[in-house]
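So, does this match?
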Amino acid sequence: MVFCSNCGTELDENQKFCPECGTRNEVAIEEAAPERSELAEEVESEVKTDISEPVTEEKKGSEKSILKIDIKEQDVKRAKEKARKGFGSALRMARKGIDRGIEVAEKGIDSAKGTIEERKARKKAPPEEAKYCPNCGQKVPADSTFCTSCGEKLE
């Protein structure tokens, strides 16, 4: 099973690009690549040493030779694939966490918008024009039919 190294989407082994994010699938590309040239194999055979040979550090005068280790290509591929799976899994988990965070934030924003709208609706109605009694000139409530001071009928 192969996973996208960028977004963690599960891929078929023959897919060269991730359908979700477009990232190249190095495993499929490596498998589709032509066989190595003779020169590459020759260079590799010169670099490789026998696994039974211990890791050594030989001194020649004041110079030190390079440590030689036999690393098999299959082991490298396996390690790369494990790393990809691990990163893909971590990316999927991060994406889920981010998506969940976005959902929570959106709910909070919607709730805040609703609260703002409620507050706007609850604002006090503008005071109605003041009403004065034509008889005594006293200020009376706008919805009064009679003056509260002199009892005169208001229009």
Remarks:
- The longest helix spans residues 73-122.
